[in-house]
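Protein modeling request. Please complete all fields; requests missing the sequence field cannot be processed.
Requester role: graduate student
Desired output: 3D structure, token encoding
Chains: 1
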Amino acid sequence: MWVGGVYSSGRTLEARRVAGSWAENTVAWSTQPLSVVNGLATATSGVGPIIFDVTALVAVMYSGTTNQGFLIRDSVENGATPYVQAFYSREAGVNPPTLTITYG
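Delivered output (104 residues):
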């Protein structure tokens, strides 16, 4: 994922498996899908590309668990402090998020 120029440094970001179905055109902050808490991948916030090693998460999806995608979030989302992370979407036309799978 590529940060869109707005970020809070020193934060831990999480990639979590989404736990249920959702629709891209209806997701908002207040309607974000539930996610699986165990088995997450983390990365440190910053400018530029943010890389999550989701190998274990993809292995779970590949083993028969329904693939509902990933939820990217700050590890502490309680609203007490205005930490901001803004990522480019695939529609931005610049630095779209990518999933690179390496087989070893």
